[in-house]
TrEMBL record:
GO molecular function: endonuclease activity; nucleic acid binding; zinc ion binding
Protein name, per record: HNH endonuclease
Domain HNH nuclease, first and last residues per copy: 9-64
Pfam families, sorted: HNH
Keywords: Endonuclease, Hydrolase, Nuclease
Annotated signal sequence range: none
């Protein structure tokens, strides 16, 4: 699918709003050698618009793991569960930081942490700069 045009102003708004952090795993952009990208929360494939309320700032790991997915399965109940949405959810309602480890607090948090692979060993080694006061 063609990559949509995102204006300089919209790009700046998304980056400033995120305070240059990945809005999913809270890694600081400058701590991720591959940096962060602007992503569609609801992917283009599923009709998500290129508007400020559907855009988030995400590190390359989170963005690649999320792909065009919108959620996953809660294997205990068989239910389809959506991912954490940085525009409508508060991070601290769904996750908490246990030093560098992100612990899910809700089923939305569990599905998001699992599919985006927040606590992958290779990622943890560079996660220490996470701002524990966030949000
Ligand atoms: Zn991330």
């Amino acid at each position: 699918m063609a990559h949509p045009y995102i204006s300089v102003e919209l790009r700046r708004l998304v980056i400033n709003r995120a305070d240059s952090l990945c809005e999913y795993c809270l890694i600081l952009e400058t701590d991720r050698p591959s940096g962060c990208q602007i992503e569609h929360i609801i992917s283009l494939k599923h009709g998500g618009p290129t508007t400020e309320d559907n855009l988030a700032y995400a590190c390359v790991f989170c963005n690649l793991q999320k792909g065009t997915d919108l959620g996953s399965i809660n294997w205990q109940t068989g239910e389809l569960v959506r991912f954490f949405n940085p525009r409508r959810d508060l991070w601290a309602d769904h996750f908490r930081l246990d030093e560098a480890i992100i612990q899910p607090l809700t089923i939305i948090g569990e599905v998001t942490a699992r599919i985006l692979d927040f606590n992958d060993r290779d990622r943890l080694s560079i996660n220490f700069s996470r701002r524990s006061w966030f949000p």
